[in-house]
TrEMBL record:
GO biological process: acetate metabolic process; acetyl-CoA metabolic process
Residues binding CoA: 268-272, 363, 383, 387, 407
Domain of life, per lineage: Bacteria
Keywords: Transferase
All copies of domain Acetyl-CoA hydrolase/transferase C-terminal, residue ranges: 326-468
Name of the protein described by the UniProt record: Succinyl-CoA:coenzyme A transferase
Family note: Belongs to the acetyl-CoA hydrolase/transferase family.
Domain Acetyl-CoA hydrolase/transferase N-terminal stretches: 12-170
EC number assigned by the record: 2.8.3.-
Catalytic residues (positions): 293
GO molecular function per UniProt: acetate CoA-transferase activity; acetyl-CoA hydrolase activity
Presence of the UniProt keyword Nucleus in the record: no
Length: 503
């Protein structure tokens, strides 16, 4: 283990998680590593939560502000939220305890585009960063840091924080060394220059983080796994959605004369994207690349099957079995995977240049194609917008997927009007449910409505949507995007009052 910390100066700063956590003060803004449950610090946040609980028991207030890459794990967001220790959190959360606090109005949460977190932190309007707590997989003799299973905003946190606490995690594969590309050419306007990346596999930076050694206050050794979400084999709904997407991509490749390697794919996390990856293995594409946010199980399978040449992302998001498999076989993936800072993996300039095929999940879409990715019944946050906006607005084509109903059929995913908007209709080009696919490109609102109702809505809700839309065509104030203002959100209100959107 000692050779993971090859730098003498930093080896001398090793201490326990409890001692390291005692360096954090009430009110501090902490930059935590971590993205979709990988590469987050595991020991210091738990020690901090214990300290906060002890202070609360004495009647002393103690809360901190947490900035991260995206979601982390129960040892971080879960433990700190449970301790009532988070005053403010950004930019993406999927922890159930933290979600509950946010939805009860007990915790402030800034849900933002993931590509924008680092630039906004540099701009400084959110205040200064007191401490960075960053998981790494090792320290070089020169004192550079070998990143872990996610890069996220770590480069930025290391630069901005006054004080740095490092967690060196032995559980992470040593073969991660060399899989990262940390770009140091970013600057704020008016000094911003083009990012010199023109292919998914271009290396434009260096493999390690630079760090000002004088800021490193503590080095903590850990040996704990990432929070890897269990993987359930794709259900029939996911498989059907995936088959519609594959059929569309094959058709689109022919129609537009796209190469055999298609265009770089971006895919959200979950069962549907994994089913799409499985489908792509059988599809007539070869030498594909991914320019995406997270590397899921399906992408490793595609690499092994030879369909995917390489994947560029900012983090892993694997099942426990696949994470173990990766750790055992990491060397084989060395030239096939590249992890970058999230302001590069999700950068709109790059997504637009490369022409990514963006595939993301949604909570609900309306008949004109606006998408709600975040707020149930318009007010309860589920996770956050994540990187969906970075890719949806800028990709070659933006595909959104969902089962046509939720909560056992009590909710229609296709509604007259979304109760919260994350993606305006201009950023939503294809909607897919198990019922079918609606290619909305180039269509006016009324044409979109016909397609979405007939191709995507569940048969239980299709007659209700037809009835609403027919009356809207008749009675709407304007006929460009026919809407019945007093009825457009009535389906949501009915659910809140009765537990179902059905009449
Ligand atoms: O809730 O677990 O309590 O049953 O939402 O829904 O169907 O399991 O689908 O896991 O793919 O998540 C949009 C949330 C879909 C996700 C969303 C309820 C449903 C369930 C989850 P339960 P499913 P998924 C890459 C890109 C935004 C970020 C993004 C997401 C839970 O894809 O967070 O795209 N996207 N990032 O029951 C009420 C509805 C509902 C609903 C679903 N209409 N009404 N509840 N649910 N639809 C990743 C990153 O950015 C990091």
């Amino acid at each position: 283990m000692a050779n993971r910390i090859s730098n003498e100066t930093l080896r001398a700063r090793m201490m326990s998680a409890e001692d390291a956590a005692s360096l954090i003060a009430p009110g501090d803004t902490i930059g935590m590593s971590g993205f979709t449950g990988s590469g987050y610090p595991k020991e210091v946040p738990q020690a901090l939560a214990a300290r906060i609980e002890a202070k609360h028991a004495e009647g002393t207030p103690f809360k901190v502000k947490i900035w991260s890459g995206a979601s982390t794990g129960p040892e971080l967001d879960g433990a700190l939220a449970k301790a009532d220790g988070i005053e403010f959190r950004l930019p993406y959360n999927s922890d159930p305890v933290a979600r509950e606090k946010i939805n009860n109005g007990e915790m402030n949460y800034f849900d933002m585009h993931l590509s924008q977190v680092a630039p906004m932190a540099w701009e400084g309007f959110m205040g200064k960063m007191d401490v960075a707590v960053v998981e790494i997989s090792g320290i070089t003799p020169e004192g550079e840091l070998i990143p872990s299973s996610s890069v996220g905003n770590n480069k930025t946190w290391l630069e901005l924080a006054d004080k740095i606490i490092l967690e060196v995690n032995d559980w992470q594969s040593e073969h991660l060394n060399g899989m990262h590309d940390i770009y140091y050419g970013t600057a704020l306007p008016p000094n911003r220059v083009p990012i010199p990346l023109v292919k998914s596999d271009d290396r434009i930076g260096q493999p390690h983080f630079r760090v000002d050694l004088s800021k490193v206050a503590a080095v903590v050794r850990t040996d704990a796994p990432d929070r890897n979400a269990p993987f359930s084999p794709p259900d029939q709904t996911s498989l059907t959605i995936a088959s519609h997407i594959i059929e569309f991509l094959e058709w689109e490749a022919k129609r537009a004369g796209l190469p055999k390697s298609l265009l770089p794919i971006q895919s959200g996390v979950g069962n549907v994207p994994n089913a799409v990856m499985a489908g792509l293995i059988e599809a007539p594409f070869e030498n594909m690349t991914a320019f995406t946010e997270v590397i899921q199980d399906g992408m490793l399978d595609m690499i092994e099957a030879g369909t995917l040449r390489m994947a560029s992302a900012t983090a892993f998001s694997l099942s426990p079995e696949k994470a173990q498999y990766f750790n055992d076989n990491a060397e084989r993936f060395k030239d096939r995977l590249l992890l970058r800072p999230q302001d590069i993996s999700n950068n709109p300039e790059l997504v637009r240049r490369l022409g990514c095929i963006a595939m993301n999940g949604l909570i609900e879409a309306d008949i004109f194609g606006a998408v709600n990715s975040t707020h149930i019944m318009g007010s309860r946050i589920q996770n956050g917008i994540g990187g969906s906006g970075d890719f949806a607005r800028n990709g070659y084509v933006s595909i959104f997927v969902t089962p046509s109903t939720a909560k056992g059929g009590a909710i229609s995913a296709i509604v007259p009007r979304v109760a919260h908007v994350d993606h305006i209709s201009q950023d939503v080009q294809v909607i897919v449910t198990e019922q079918g696919l609606a290619d909305l490109r180039g269509l006016a609102p009324r044409q979109r409505a016909e397609l979405i109702i007939e191709h995507c809505a569940h048969p239980d809700y299709r007659p209700m949507l037809r009835d609403y839309y027919t009356r809207a065509l008749q009675d709407s104030y304007g006929k460009h995007a026919p809407t019945l203002l007093n009825e457009a959100l009535s389906w949501h209100q009915r659910f809140v009052e009765t537990g179902t959107m059905k009449l």
